[in-house]
Amino acid sequence: MERKVVFSGVQPSGSLTIGNYIGAIKNFATLQDEYDCFYCIVDLHAITVPQVPKDLRKRSLDVLALYVACGIDPDKSTLFMQSHVPAHAELSWVLNTITYMGQLNRMTQFKDKARKSEENLNAGLFTYPVLMAADILLYQTDFVPVGDDQKQHIELARDLAERFNNRYSETFKVPQGLYNEFGARIMSLQNPEVKMSKSDADENAFILLLDDKDAIRRKVKRAVTDSEGVIAYRDEQPGLKNLINIYSLFSNEKVESIVNRYEGVGYGKFKEDLAEVIIEGLLPIQEKYHYLMNNKDYLEEIYKKGADKAEYHAMKTLRKVYKKVGFIPRR
Questions:
Q1: Which fold is adopted by the domain 5-179+295-325?
Q2: Which is the catalytic residue, given 26, 195, 219, 271?
Q3: Catalytic, out of 113, 173, 241, 271
Q4: Where are the domains of the chain?
């Protein structure tokens, strides 16, 4: 029986945070035994903001190494660089021609980026969601593991699949979002109202997967809580609730158990223990990452093999698309 397809990608736009790990990459590894998984490093998306070329190359390898270090098996999943499969850009152009300007104007992430990047308001930022739709639809994807903030992008991919199918006949699967409700959104350590982000100006707002022990202890110690001084899991204490979520997801311990254990204990002791739980959880990832970065021939073997497999599947879809829109096939 043919397995369902999962697709997702991570931008090589900076070091990954524990939010990226908990909300996405950790779950990628759990999906690979049940689904046919395609995980890529979306370097085409990354250049919508200015990049230093050598840094982009380094960060792309970093993400690949972290994929593997976090448990994604290149023999079970397809790991590749987006730019190594030209069909992503080619399908994106075709989808641009059936995407309405009004749809793209309504994308909240574009509005946010436009406010932050007025001096770099390029067309790529505007059409970014169309390329994302192409990424997904190329592989006849059934499920896309995403956080709540990506729901608009999944809806656009679904709209474009249905619009193309209605106009040209059945071609694309209509994908569904795969939402991990608990832990899907790890919040900033300094402002629990916003998602943890590696682009935050305050380095105390996030913990990187490659942070050392001292940095982790310092950032957890400085994490925002509240003046109540009571360990409880409730919306009225968003900073503490976020820290308890992180504790639970790193320790695999139930929230109720954590809250009960720290009843009557101050925030200081809770934060000390949380830092050690994070350090212990990240240690094997960091060790595997450093091993892989010292074996770049192996990483090259992974992304070349992955690109070959991804291109085979992508081209099957692209050939159908080109035929249906009326292009003369190249023999």
A1: Rossmann fold (3.40.50)
A2: 195
A3: 113
A4: 5-179+295-325, 203-290
* Pairwise CA distance, residues 74 & 95, whole Å: 30
Q: Tell me: pLDDT of 177 over 70.
A: yes
What does DSSP assign to residue 328?
A: P
Phi and psi, residue 77, nearest 5°: -115, 155
323 annotated active-site: no
Averaged pLDDT score across all residues of the chain: 92
What fold does the segment set 203-290 form as a domain?
Tyrosyl-Transfer RNA Synthetase (1.10.240)
User: What pTM value is reported for the model?
Assistant: 0.90
Buried b (16+ CB within 10 A) or exposed e, 106-141: ebeebeebeeeeeeeeeeebbbbbbbbbbbbbbbbb
Gap between the Cα atoms of 167 and 321, Å rounded: 12
Q: Is 5 helix (H, G, I), strand (E, B) or coil?
A: strand
- Does residue 21 or residue 81 have the better pLDDT? 81
242-254 pLDDT tens trace: 999 999 999 999 9
**Closest C-alpha to 245, from 18, 33, 93, 48:** 18
8 A C-beta contact, residue 275 and residue 220: yes
C-alpha 22/C-alpha 17 separation (Å) is 9
Kindly tell me if the per-residue pLDDT of 109 is higher than 80: no
pLDDT digit string, tens, across residues 289-305: 999 999 999 999 999 99
Given the residues 4, 76, 198, 309, select the one marked as catalytic.
198
Q: Identify whether 195 is a catalytic site residue.
A: yes
324 given a catalytic annotation: no
